[in-house]
Write a structure and sequence with these properties.
mainly beta, 145 residues
Length: 145
């Protein structure tokens, strides 16, 4: 497996750079640039202290951390957040507290994760009919759950 080079600008040199916790992990942790509290039902924009240059043909996906989700009900409102290749600003996580208690986080806490994946540009073609498939128009649990 080859490593994809991602250019990163440290906006806060005291925070760790994004890195894989273990070999083979898809995501890298993003860290809170400042401390804060997210109250039940509240949304908060949390800066991460970095900006990146996602290569053309790739997209950065900002995703919740499963540990925060199961332990505290912390997720991301727009999960996954989309980080386009042309964006050069600071990465922020739009955090929501879906738990029943206030969630306090400290500066430097892992708050979200970033996964960078290739994508295909879409080109749409209008047709009168779509090709048949086994599933057809079934959706919203039609396959059994």
């Amino acid at each position: 497996m080859h490593a994809l080079k991602i250019l990163v600008k440290q906006l806060d040199a005291e925070l760790p750079l994004p890195s894989h916790a273990t070999s083979g992990d898809a995501g890298v942790d993003l860290y809170a640039r400042e401390a804060g509290t997210v109250w039940p039902g509240e949304r908060k924009l949390v800066p991460t202290g970095i900006a990146v240059a996602v290569p053309q043909g790739y997209v950065g996906l900002i995703a919740p951390r499963s540990g925060l989700a199961i332990k505290y009900g912390i997720s991301l409102v727009n999960s996954p957040g989309i980080l386009d290749a042309g964006f050069r600003g600071e990465i922020h996580a739009i955090v929501i507290n879906e738990g029943e208690e206030a969630f306090d986080y400290a500066r430097g806490d892992r708050i979200a994760q970033l996964v960078v994946v290739p994508f295909a540009e879409q080109q749409f073609e209008v047709v009168d009919e779509l090709p048949d498939s086994d599933r057809g128009e079934g959706g919203f649990g039609s396959t059994g759950s």
